[in-house]
Amino acid sequence: MIMTRYLFLLLFVSITVFSQHKIETKKVSTTLSKHGITIQDDYTWLENTSNKEVIDWITLQNNVSEQKLTEVVKNHNFSFKIKDYDYLSTYSLPSKNGKYFYNTYRIDKNKPGVLYYRESLNDLGKPLVDPYDVYKDENVVLLGYYPSKNSKYLAFRISPNGSDRHEIKFRDFVNKKYLNDVLTDIKFSSVAWNGDKGVFYKKNSNKEFFARDSTYQLFYHKIGDVQSKDQLVFDTSNTKSNFSFFTKKNKLYISEVSEDETTKNYYYTELDNEQFDFKNFVKEDKTNFEYLNIVADKFYFSDEKYPWGNVSYFDINNRAESTILIPQVYSHLLIGATFLDNYIICKYNNMGKYYMSIYDYTGKFIRKFEAPHSMDFQIRFYDEKTNELFVTFYSYTIPSLNYKLNITTGANDIYFNEFIQPKPTLFPFNYFETKIITYKSRDNKDIPIVIIHKKGIELNGNNPTLLKAYGGFGSISSPTYDTGLLHFLEKGGVYAYAQIRGGGEKGKNWHKEGKGLKKINSINDFVDAAEFLMSEKYTNPNKIAITGGSNGGLVVGAAMTQRPDLFKVVVANVGVFDMINAQKFTVGKYHLDEYGNADIKEEFNSLLKFSPLHNIKEDVNYPTCLIITSENDDRVPPFHSYKFVAKLQSRSAQKNPIYLKVNKNAGHYGNISNYENRVKKESEFYSFIWEHLNN
Fold first, then answer.
1. Is 171 within 8 Å of 197 (Cβ atoms)?
2. Cα 484 to the chain's mean position, in Å?
3. Model-level pTM?
4. Which of 418, 378, 369, 430 is nearest to 401 (CA)?
5. pLDDT tens-digit readout, 550-575
6. Per-residue pLDDT tens digits for 188-208
7. What b-and-e string marks burial along 505-527, b requiring 16 or more CB atoms within 10 Å of the CB?
8. Handedness of CA 361, 363, 368, 373 (dihedral sign)
């Protein structure tokens, strides 16, 4: 009771004397001794997220941050512009899966999107799955849908609370009825059908929400059964190895990666016999190849020996012999490969220029299509009758452009129909200027950076600038069309995305140079990007904001604690901030190869050098921060953010405000269930940045 009164009194003081933004969090000292080093942590108590004191503390933080965010949104017109630009933007083609075409439409802006299907492109879509109709909850999110072999049933995957623990339900196409079958405790799982008879799925056995992940079992569910009858097919509970699975033709395949992420095994079993006797056709492989596809018992992969990406294959009955089908193109990154009945379509990027090269299964080159206006693209589907690819192109500043590409003739035509109608462009294609250039890192590496601004802007060193990065897990960045960013650019802002080491933008070696003991390179590259933007007269330390999410949140948190003098505003989303303890929770154990293992002295010392939480100094006034997390994030637990914020706020040297926003009923991706939530999220983000870069 005393603590509750204290919190409400503090809330009153914090809101009344708002300019101070001071929230003092109680300290309960704990220590961790490792490798001869003792670390003090005053905020371990915030890890107990179900404790009333923690809940009250979060409420207090949210009340303060919500008041500020409401204020900045009122001061600027991002919310209006986002909705206006959304309405005027064009949308992508549907995707085709099995017999039907699928789209998700937002029928009610305050409810989740509804999945529609149509038999042909020109048909009027029919509603198939309405998550709100099933759950009567506006926060549920439809995350995936999987038609059975003959499109008799549709399995769909739902996140009821935003977390990574999902549910699978089913819809009957013919009768338009939801089945009684419900599969729960689904985690890190796709859905693979055995014809129309049943599905394979991974089941999680965690008892505590933020405990280390325990998704080690693959089950088979027959349509019409209750989940308790489901058959255990594959189990790695003893080895703690991670695995994925898929079905092709009449086989179930499993890819298993050892706990230390050094060794791979591949298995398959025939689906005709539901005894599921597996054959181990790739044994203890340490070459770290990348699986692409399996076609006619040929296993297609990208060889680690060719870091820019190639297409090789071997017969699943003879792993010893492999053939290079499509060699790597040096400095041209192979982003992915699409396998059709007669063609392999390779998607490449070369310094921001996207294109596709089409080959047959002998490796013969057929044709090349280049993306217009340096846009990225997605292949939506292929029409065998006309030999046409239907493709959607998009960029940071140009919404969806839908095209038909004829593989036989090379013709390329923009595509419209009754439901995908032409709209005037929001801006002329040359209204914004996009540059893909490189800057030098402190160790003389060429780091790619994307820079976007309104054409003709004066580079006077005083432009409001937003710098972003991810830089982890070999992830390859790609443009995202964002109407909030459009308005930021229209108002004179500069946007930059640094393709730092740790990502995969320059091939597999680019990832290796920014992970493990070399993870510090990611942070250094990001700091160097900011200094480059300043040296080139784009901006200055009072006009730059930095942002990133998840691993990108780690990057900006580490950059801020390294160089607090360099940034005006920091917005970190679901960041990994406590690197010493990260491996104790949820998926942290899968990231030892990416970050380092705190149980190994050399790696512990490496983690300690860049861990944002452990590099906060008592005598430094850090930049204004908005730290965003979600209460149900079981990928990066929210207490990473809680502890980081508490330590920043509770120092006398901190004069700039530190805000914490905790999304309720949400997970790693925040409140994304409906349109109004998305607009609120975007308008708060850009309004907050704009306010602090221009005051």
1. no
2. 18
3. 0.95
4. 378
5. 999 999 999 999 999 999 999 999 99
6. 999 999 999 999 999 999 999
7. bbbbebbebbbbeebbbbbbbbb
8. positive
